[in-house]
Batch of 4 targets.
Target 1
Amino acid sequence: MQLVDLDPCDQDVINVFADIDRLISSLYPVATSQALTVNELGLPGVYAVGLKNQDGIVACGAIVKQFDGSWYGEIRRLYVKPSYRGKGLSRRIMQILLHHAGEEEIPIIKLETGPKQIQSIHLYENLGFVQCAPFGEYTENPNSLFMELALS
């Protein structure tokens, strides 16, 4: 498997983002989705990577540098294709993103996930994330769970 930067023009990236959108739409009302779009991948402050093999992008994730009175990084689009789950790929992507955040001296990492994504929540907890209040433009929502990890 090869680590690649996510290119918004790559059909494999477009396909995996469509897979993510279908999954999230099957779990939660579309109105709650605040997803990073393919077109936003090239924006400053976005670091997005994937693991690619002959099946295309099989795992991906991004960190977006944000400012809300202070700097933080927001984890977005963490995903592993169903046939590749249980192999540690989401942890590998998270470790790459957290390493990048450390290099960029981003002091805190935040994320929004859904309460139905139990395996994701366990991963985040195992990495040291704790629940927090909504941040940025998010508001309290029964379909959202907010977490953060201080990198100090």
Target 2
Amino acid sequence: MNILEINHMRKRFGQLEVLNDISLTVAEGQVVSIIGPSGSGKSSLMYCLSTLKTPTDGSIVYNGTDYRDMGRGELERLRREQFGFVFQHHFLIGYMNVMDNVMVAAKEATAESRERAKELLMGLRIKETEFKKKPKQLSGGQRQRCAIARALINTPKVLFADEPTASLDHENAFRVMQYLKEYAKEHLVLVITHDHSILE
């Protein structure tokens, strides 16, 4: 089923047009990759698709509803309940440990969500002995994998991942992409990258 539909979308910042007449239909149950060099507008496209930025022209339709027909509260609820985000920077909270950084995004702090957080972290190769560590005690790759677990805690219908493997070595990058590929069997994963090798 088609979940995202983009129609003649443009995005300008002042006189600079970074996206020009983009049209695209995306179905769930797959990984979709947006590939291009730095500065080509990949992140701007993702921010528009995820409602974090508003297109200058054109429309974006999610599950049959045009973003332009939704109020600010509806868009916030959509992001919270349907979308997950992995940014280039992990944005972990420095005074919280690994488990709390994942749980802070959970809809409810229940035993079930805590168990899911544990499963996500271990699935992304974060050991249980590291759950109580603070971000500064982790490697860059561990921090990024923790951020991915946080993005998945609510089982979002759409995961937006901006360079999710940039801080990972090749082996862990491959494992993360395999994990996201498995997740995408029942969801949509949108990956922005300039690294063709991780998509192979």
Target 3
Amino acid sequence: MGLKHKKAVIFDLDGTLVDSMWMWEAIDIEYLGRFGYSCPPGLQKAIEGMSFSETALYFKERFAIPDPVEEIKAEWTRMSIDKYRTQVPLKKGAGEFLSYLKSQGIPMGIATSNGRDMVDAVLGSLGIEALFDNVTVGCEVANGKPAPDIYLHVAGLLGVRPENCLVFEDVPA
């Protein structure tokens, strides 16, 4: 089944459309360092696919962070927005592919575990926000990735049955 049989395309954001995966480990190292922790092996694997809120709760519990979950998220947002605005490029070929899909009238959505402020920052800095018919973040659905909730939600908002969507995702789970 090629693209001609698909009626919409849903993209993950980090690591799929934009080259930003390096940034999160750098932020984790800096953030945990403030509390006297080094970044433990396997941390990135443990939080892979979690929503922003789920990840903040995980950090709070695993590392006994005294700050409330909302404050953890706010700090990560502050730490990441500057990087998103100035250091995160589109993946090679992504811009051309997005333009092609738009020219073909294929609805596009983003399904990301990231937070809304960060998504808005990177889409705005890259000038691609208008290409997408919908952008949904993990905190807007009941269960974060790898649960299918976010993909089903975006497909519904695009008005397309899930089996008629092509999904680009960099996390196998």
Target 4
Amino acid sequence: MVGYVAQMGELALLPFLAVFPLGCFQFAMLVVVNIPDAVGDMASGKHTLIYFLGAVRTVRLYAGVLALAYLSLPVLVWSGLPLEVALALLLVSPLAAWQGWRMVRGAWTDPDKWNSLGFWSVGLVMSSAGVEFLAFLLLIEELIG
């Protein structure tokens, strides 16, 4: 947001609209990469999200946050997010659906799958940011106009 204000000279709603789905994906990624630490965190008394919610509810929250990112798109578009940006995010939805399906089906319980879950969660954040960037790049003249 600081970069946006530095370049545009003011704070606007659009950056918040664009960042909301990315924030959902970032939160989901943080949940996934912290799963391997859950047992050690609990043993050492570290009170993490998994400690408070339990593993099953945390996985449900993970899936819910992924769904929220996509279910919020109509509201975000109605609020001013360009339709092209929302449609670009839909390009990455198969990856989010696959990750959510894997988590709900119990991949988080298998240590052999932790690296893959983490890798693809980071991939979801980065690819979503990338497609948003490309969509905004294609719209730059219209937005600055």
